[in-house]
Amino acid sequence: AEPGGSGENAGADDGVITLGFSQVGAESGWRAANTKSIQDTLTEDNGFELKFSDAQQKQENQIQAIRSYITQGVDVIAFSPVVETGWDAVLQEAKSAGIPVILTDRAVDSSDDTLYESFIGSDFVKEGEMAGEWVVEQYDGEGYQAVELQGTTGAAPAIDRKEGFASAIEGSDVEIIDSQTGNFTRAEGKTVMEGFLNKHDDIDLVFAHNDDMGLGAIEAIEAAGMKPGEDIKIVTIDAVKDGMQALVDGKINYIVECNPLLGPDLAEVAQKVVAGEEVEKRIVVKDEAFDQAAAEEALPTREY
Ligand code: GYE
């Protein structure tokens, strides 16, 4: 595509689709798999020129990257918004420049859904519900005290997983006694869990919004002389390899999957958008869940 090409005539007039992608960061195993899927799919061989930038979990970096893609006149902009709110102005700029935007992984909270073409990603409320339903099924009646390691404050998966889990445990005797953000990273998951262990004597269960924070919690629990998965049960979301290994090892008790392999769907939607074809406004990615036995079976052939 011509740099600077914009307005109604923007498009892949040279047959190559230039796509500017703004990634959240490199905070987790899930994110690494997601980045790999995008980079492996949006290749020259597949008709793409991919411009990729890592925002290091900062919204201002993403806004800057999107503005630079607008200036460069890319054919399509795609991004995974680190937080839900605060996107209207920059998305309006893309729209005025005639550059279509595709959301992957995380949603934006905007009343104007003409600001993007499609949102491809999992149903995070449902993931939280699946985690909560399993906890109730296993432990209701035991008076369990749970702590929650939340994802990045203001991020769609943190907001939605919290909500889904809370609604699933409602009416049971599982109680969340503390809840803090660990920013989706292993290091912060560990630090927050250390704080919880210092503050509370009787923690029965950890609900972590992703595997990495759960893996950090495992380190904190072991350092405190207890057995993760036994003395303190752990339920997480993502099902990346390290998480699945910990589940097989009995240190995590249950994992709800979140599929990070969004590259192929993104490529397809981008091609359609550039060709002026209709696309679905919402593409929901399907997720499973794993207990120990299911993890043992799935791990050897796991892609991520
Ligand atoms: O669960 C977490 C990552 O947005 C679904 O972000 C994604 C989440 C994923 O950091 O590991």
UniProtKB/TrEMBL annotation:
Tree of life domain: Bacteria
Domain Periplasmic binding protein per the UniProt entry, residue ranges: 21-278
CDD domains noted in UniProt: PBP1_galactofuranose_YtfQ-like
Keyword Ribonucleoprotein on entry: no
UniProt keyword annotations, A-Z: Signal
InterPro entries given in the database record: Peripla_BP_I, SBP_2_dom
Locations listed in the record: Cell envelope
Similarity comment text for this entry: Belongs to the bacterial solute-binding protein 2 family.
Protein name as it appears in the record: ABC transporter substrate-binding protein
Origin organism lineage: Bacteria, Bacillati, Actinomycetota, Actinomycetes, Micrococcales
